[in-house]
Design a protein that fits this description.
By secondary structure, this protein is an alpha/beta fold. The chain has a single domain (about 10-305), classed as 3-Layer(aba) Sandwich (Rossmann fold), CATH 3.40.50.1820. It has eleven helices and eight strands. An eight-stranded mixed sheet has the order 2-1-4-3-5-6-7-8. Helix 3 crosses helix 4 and helix 4 (about 135-145) packs parallel to helix 5 (about 165-170).
């Protein structure tokens, strides 16, 4: 019998999706009515079975990750995905090796994620299917939309997403994209990583969605987590997050104290996306504003307009 206090493991291998269908069916049968499936997707440098702390199932997907690694914080524990409140699924894929190769494999993993969503709907029709992904894991989540059926995915929470605007808009224009709810968590701490991703993955021809999505669809919400006005609004909603401690960080959207608690509230419905939208400021801080804060440099104005 599946243990509802543990994380259900799903991997993407060379042959595609690897999942114990019988065990998944049993886990879904034990899940209370209204409890969602929440799929967690890692980013670059992780891969199932990798050694040296690089297997996500023994790291961020674990209820008890290794304490010696400062980036190893338990997603399922801090998201409250135990005790029958949700079925937590750790979604592992090959994100090691050359970065451009991992970017390509993220698209393949997206198709496998759509297959998993369809499988859940076949086994348990109407079950809510939510996804939270960091970095290239967010790219995987968006890549699933063109392959998914409308309603198969309910909500995506993207953390410091390694994706650009054009493919994101194409994904949102799909049938599944028109039905999904997206919370795109950004920070100016990630500006350097956004800039590097734009050039490594797309020769600088497109803008990372960490800078927000232009012509934003009604079912998409950008949340700048290190903006003072946003922090004030979140505190009023009961989520008092500390100010960002660093100027550069790719991991702060889940390492910052209280951040995973915010996503937990979104996932369990105690904080609606509409309430979040109404509370947050409409404008985001410009690119490089955090990195260059307090610096007197002739190129600041030019860089902020990028």
């Amino acid at each position: 019998m599946p243990d509802q206090t543990n994380v259900f493991r799903v991997d993407v291998g060379r042959a595609g999706l690897r999942v114990d269908r019988a065990a998944l069916a049993e886990a879904l049968a034990l899940l209370p009515v209204g409890a969602p499936v929440v799929v967690m997707i890692h980013g670059y440098r992780f891969a199932p079975g990798a050694r040296g702390g690089n297997c996500p199932h023994g790291h961020i997907f674990s209820m008890q990750p290794p304490v010696q690694d400062w980036t190893a914080i338990s997603w399922p524990r801090h998201l409250g995905l135990s005790g029958g409140r949700a079925l937590a699924i750790g979604f592992g894929w090959q994100a090691r090796g050359r970065f451009r190769g991992a970017c390509v494999r993220a698209r393949v993993a997206g198709r496998a994620l759509a297959e998993l969503a369809a499988l859940v709907q076949r086994l348990d029709p109407g079950r809510a299917f939510d996804v939270i992904g960091h970095s290239l894991g967010a790219r995987v989540a968006l890549a699933a939309l063109p392959y998914a059926s409308p309603g198969d995915l309910r909500r995506l929470i993207l953390l410091a997403a390694a994706e650009t605007r054009r493919p994101a808009m194409r994904a949102m224009a799909s049938a599944a994209g028109a039905c999904v709810q997206v919370v795109n968590v950004t920070t100016r701490e990630n500006d350097l990583f956004d800039f590097l991703f734009e050039w490594l993955a797309g020769a600088g021809l497109d803008t990372a969605i960490g800078q927000g999505l232009r012509d934003t669809p009604a079912n998409w919400l950008d949340v700048q987590l290190d903006q003072p006005a946003s922090l004030t609004a979140l505190a009023r909603l009961g989520h008092d997050l500390p100010d960002a401690p660093a100027r550069i960080s790719h991991w702060s959207p889940y390492l910052r104290p209280g951040a995973l608690g915010l996503y937990r509230a979104i996932l369990d419905g105690s904080l609606s996306v509409q309430a979040l939208r109404e509370a947050l400021p409409e404008r985001r801080d410009p690119r490089w504003s955090r990195l260059l804060a307090g610096w007197q440099w002739p190129l600041v104005g030019r860089m902020q307009r990028v």
